[in-house]
């Protein structure tokens, strides 16, 4: 009994000692120690379960006095003790349910690991799913995506504004020249009256149009400012690999009396090679390889495609050469043609059945200096080129081939037409055949649909007579051919 | 400035109205990018919705942005808006169904 009295304060002291594993493990240890010391006293508690021992041991801290009495009692009064113990359990339950539960878990933690050490190896530590981690860092891919989108939007706005400023700068520097030459500057084709809008048509974020009309020697002039796609980030990145430059394309359409019949082109070698393959008229009329313009004083970087030498001599007068030499870096291509029909069209089923429509046209393609990094000031440097365009319009009106040249040109055109007809001969025959069959079928249907039997018979007879006549004619022709052959 | 410095080259009676060039005459000059990107965007957003792939949905958003940036001003805005909305809905649905963050392919 006295030993138990001594043990209790010892127990209390041990409980007071700090332990990293927690006081509850201590209690366990203490419990085991106590069992060693005095098996009898704690025997019944140990047998029942761990809980009661835990609860009895945790009891001492809050209420040392009442718990000591059941512990001190002898074995004879064991039943009373348990009853008392159990009462205390009930009280404890009523009072500190949560605390006991907490103690239970903590107690079992250490116990489990001690009793079953093998389980430690098979314990799998699952990662907490990222979306439950409550940290923004796990969403870094999404943040990257959104940042990319924001960068795209920023680039779109900046690129759009830059293109718009460049277009406006071009128009401001050229406005005076255009307005002094054309009655109508700027038209979008929608307004009822032909009044100058005085501004560019925006087709895209990177393409601007301007239509000028109302001048001698020409029908109209369409100017296209084809800027780089600065508003598209993908394009900007692609341009870092392969730099290209902004272009100004001018297309002057002429009336029939404004131009004589010739086809001519001058420009950078690369452009000439490309145009000769792509353009319908250049491939048909200018069959030879691009020639050097050194004879006229042009730099080596430029080449000439011409229908005949006389045309080149006529076009390349001193002023033209002067313009071209001074701005050779800005000139991509200059193309004069009376047979212009655009690029070669790829056909799905053989050639078209008739020649493509042609229009007398002057085409100019100029490169804006700066190779992409253009500033609005660079647009002023294109003004002399516009002067060249105006000069060309007037010049072409005055340029007339001599008799020999004219004959050659007419022969060329006849040759091209003949070639075309030959190529399409088979197609045209087929087309004619189908048309004839269609007619026959339509007639037969008409006869069938005719309700009156009398009229039906008459129509049938008429059709038969017509067929007979055709057969006779054919036979006659065959006979004639046979006679001729003989 | 003009070649005929004596007389005014402008002629009021020779005005021709602007006719927008038809697309039939030069199909090669047309830029196919906005149409392709539109189609791609729709395909990716459908993939993202059906197969619950987050990266598909994000690519669809990008495609519709690129299509918008390259589009012609004459094009229908309704088409643009519909592809936008489809791609954004694909992204939102993928995240509602599975709020886990996207895992990189590496």
Automatic annotation (TrEMBL), chain B:
<keyword id="KW-0472">Membrane</keyword>
<dbReference type="Pfam" id="PF03669">
    <property type="entry name" value="ASTER"/>
</dbReference>
<feature type="transmembrane region" description="Helical">
    <location>
        <begin position="39"/>
        <end position="68"/>
    </location>
</feature>
<keyword id="KW-0812">Transmembrane</keyword>
<dbReference type="GO" id="GO:0044183">
    <property type="term" value="F:protein folding chaperone"/>
</dbReference>
<dbReference type="GO" id="GO:0005789">
    <property type="term" value="C:endoplasmic reticulum membrane"/>
</dbReference>
<keyword id="KW-1133">Transmembrane helix</keyword>
<feature type="region of interest" description="Disordered">
    <location>
        <begin position="1"/>
        <end position="30"/>
    </location>
</feature>
<protein>
    <recommendedName>
        <fullName>PAT complex subunit Asterix</fullName>
    </recommendedName>
</protein>
<dbReference type="InterPro" id="IPR005351">
    <property type="entry name" value="ASTER"/>
</dbReference>
<dbReference type="GO" id="GO:0045048">
    <property type="term" value="P:protein insertion into ER membrane"/>
</dbReference>
<comment type="similarity">
    <text>Belongs to the Asterix family.</text>
</comment>
